[in-house]
Specification:
globular; 7 helices; about 75% helix; mainly alpha; about 150 residues
């Protein structure tokens, strides 16, 4: 197990070293999550309209913003983990993200989540999961000396 100093970790954040394809895909997914978060925090009504949700009351907009804040926190974890080439996190994300579509399907079928929101989350999470999976496999082939 490698242990890094605080300074080495900061340097890794500022200047990623030998970042794998899978790590880059996780980092970019994190930036997408951060963009979603900012949109929800700054213009929740516009996001609701784009997702074809009912107009948000003041209280609903507040809760929507709290959800956006949580998405932003996850986005930061994805960005940092990708930049630091954190293979354990990358692997865990490949287990987590494919679970989003069935979870969204269940929430939609129970009437908890509107279809447009379920489709948006499912498409983004599963699509980026596939990207990370194919990047992970290309990294493994490269490490084994095979064609990428």
């Amino acid at each position: 197990m490698n242990t890094f100093t605080h300074t080495e970790m900061i340097q890794g954040l500022l200047h990623p070293n030998n970042q794998s394809r899978a790590a880059k895909s996780v980092e970019i997914f994190g930036y997408i999550m951060l963009a979603e978060s900012l949109a929800i925090l700054l213009v929740p009504q516009l996001v609701a309209v784009l997702l074809q949700l009912d107009p948000l009351s003041a209280q609903s907009a507040t809760y929507f913003r709290i959800g956006g804040l949580l998405i932003g926190g996850l986005g930061i974890l994805y960005v940092i983990s990708g930049r630091l080439n954190a293979n354990g996190f990358i692997f865990a994300s490949m287990i987590d993200r494919p679970l989003v579509p069935p979870t969204m399907l269940l929430l939609w079928s129970l009437g908890i989540v509107p279809g447009t929101l379920a489709i948006a989350f499912s498409t983004l999470d599963f699509g980026t999961f596939l990207w990370t999976l194919f990047a992970w496999r290309a990294d493994l082939r490269q490490r084994a000396g095979g064609p990428v």
